[in-house]
Write a structure and sequence with these properties.
The chain is of the alpha+beta class. The protein is 31% helix and 27% strand. The protein contains 5 helices and 5 strands, in the order H-H-E-E-E-E-E-H-H-H. A 5-stranded antiparallel β-sheet has the order 4-3-2-1-5. Strand 1 and strand 2 form a beta hairpin. The longest helix is centred in the last third of the chain and has 16 residues.
């Protein structure tokens, strides 16, 4: 996954069905494009906006010509639909992927307290301290 993820992308990852497409990463699927063409291959990457990268792909034109590609990128706006493999339990896959996303993008303690290394007790005191008790409060409140 990319190192830099925007807040907007995180929002889409948690509040749309992008998490289902992310859950079928490393499986073979077919993507039908808006122009009637299709591409099949191993889903290697999906970002929060549903841009998709496939490996070992076969591009199938509307007149059934096939072209093989080692790597194929599809921009989200060109996708009509994605066929999910039948062996995927959709509800379980969504729940599992949402949990992975939450763990991956949860704020780290060092981010909350301005990059300082603190123990958990100190973090709690700083986060929940009243503003006038002499200890500087950091983080978003």
């Amino acid at each position: 996954m990319a190192d830099i993820i925007t807040c907007r992308e995180k929002y889409f990852m948690h509040n749309s069905l992008v998490c289902l497409i992310q859950a079928v990463r490393n499986q073979y699927c077919t993507i039908e494009l808006r122009n009637g063409d299709a591409v099949s291959g191993k889903l290697s990457f999906v970002d929060g906006f549903m841009n998709v990268s496939l490996e070992d792909a076969v591009f199938i034109t509307s007149d059934d010509q096939q072209h093989h590609f080692e790597f194929f990128f599809v921009q989200a706006r060109n996708i009509r639909f994605i066929t999910i493999p039948q062996n995927v339990e959709i509800t379980a896959a969504i729940m599992e992927q949402l949990e992975k996303n939450r763990r991956q993008f949860a704020p780290r303690l060092s981010e909350i307290v301005g990059g300082k290394q603190l123990d958990k007790g100190s973090v709690k005191r700083r986060l929940f301290a009243a503003p006038n008790d002499g200890d500087e409060v950091t983080g978003d409140h």
